[in-house]
Amino acid sequence: MRTQPLPLDGITVVAIEQAVSAPFATRQLADLGARVIKIERLDGGDFARDYDTAARGLASHFVWCNRGKESLAVDLKDPRGLAIVQRLVAGADVFVQNLAQGSAARLGLDAPTLCAAHPRLIAVDISGYGAGGPYAHKRAYDMLVQCEAGLVSVTGTHAEPAKAGIPAADISAAMYAFSGVLAALLRRTTTGLGGPVEISMLESLAEWMGHPLHYGMHGGEPPARTGVAHAVIAPYDAYATADGGQVLLSVQNDREWRRLAEQVLDEPDLSSDPRFASNTARTANRELTDATVAKALARLGTDEAVERLEAAGIACARLNTVKDVAGHPQLAARERWREIDSPVGPLRALLPPITLPGGPEALMGAVPALGEHTDALLASLGMTMEETAALHREGVVA
């Protein structure tokens, strides 16, 4: 088979980015071969660098979202620093920013301004709530947007709502920014023109609210919060096992209930018991249904429970911890783990989920130190060592 290049080989991206939404979007581009130049503040850079020290002294968010990038530390408030970034943007294919609303425009780095000056440029503005409307200038951290988008209202238990355990608003915006860039690059091959791409965290996450949103809008009551249980199917929940684990199982029809009763619960009479014989009955008697299943699984270890459920053809899953996922046998069998370089040495990371057989593997480059590539990038713009040294001395770059 002929080896193909990575799909974004030759594409240059300049990003003024912080936290998760823009960095995660541009990391996808870097993994697929794009050169990503990350513009950072002099005083600490992307503030996600300081979220924690869990990754051998580095912040876990930063390691996750920023591999494979070149870091330029520059003062954008200094005209000389801004001019450096403008020169980099002039030679780029894509520009991405997620500054506070209005900040990019004040610097002349908003999408309309840049695209007017550089017709082939694709300029991405990621914001919390969009450029217009009453929420345009409202602060938009991930959990705040989860609340505004209604995700928190459908997540959690009957007693209490909960945010998603991952930054769902940031991730949704990142993935729409990523796909928006790919779409704009494809359009540019036929039109020769780039153009603005606008992404709102609220609009991205509201789209992900699809089922409960449409269910509620069109006359039904929004689904009740049920923890990991299903609102209208029983049994469909997580149950404790004898060794301290938990197994989630799902019975989708009455045939599966009969197999569960006979082959897992060891109570064949339950298959015809009118309290359990149909999903309607099992849901109406949910507490009794769950108690019956829980009692049986509590006698089994996790491995035995999973084996018996699978042998009976019942869909099931272990309720894994994040440490369990790090050692997941399926990820190991498919060789999804790699090591990436970083300022503190090699770190484990997952291959990105986009697999392109017949081409090279995703790049998965190093996590950059703050300003690691400043001098090289200035040299690429034609600056002499003396000019670069002067910018360092005068606090324009680091």
Task: Describe the fold and architecture.
This protein is an alpha/beta fold. It contains 17 helices and eleven strands. It has helices at residues 21-31, 60-65, 79-90, 103-106, 111-117, 142-148, 168-191, 201-208, 210-217, 254-264, 279-284, 286-297, 302-311, 322-326, 329-333, 374-380, 385-393, and strands at 12-16, 35-40, 69-73, 94-97, 122-127, 195-200, 236-240, 246-250, 315-318, 337-340, 347-350. It has a six-stranded parallel sheet with strand order 3-2-1-4-5-6, sandwiched between helices. A three-stranded antiparallel sheet has the order 7-8-9, covered by helices on one side. α1 (21-31) packs across α7 (168-191) and α7 (168-191) crosses α8. The chain starts with 11 loop residues before the first strand and ends in a 5-residue tail after the last helix.
What are its keywords?
single chain, 398 residues, alpha/beta, six-stranded parallel β-sheet, three-stranded antiparallel β-sheet, 14% strand
Concise account of the structure shown:
Helices cover 38% and strands 14% of the residues.
> Which residues sit in consecutive blocks of at least 5 with pLDDT less than 50?
none
> Structural class of the helices, strands and pairings?
alpha/beta
Query: How confident is the prediction overall: mean pLDDT?
Result: 96
Percent helix range: 25-40%
Strand content: 5-15%
Tell the overall outline.
Answer: elongated
Quickly count the helices. Answer: 17
N-to-C order of helices and strands: EHEHEHEHHEHHEHHEEHHHHEHHEEHH
| Strands ordered across the widest β-sheet | 3-2-1-4-5-6
Report the strand count: 11
- CA-CA gap between termini: 45 Å
Give the C-alpha Rg.
26 Å
Largest sheet: 6 strands, parallel
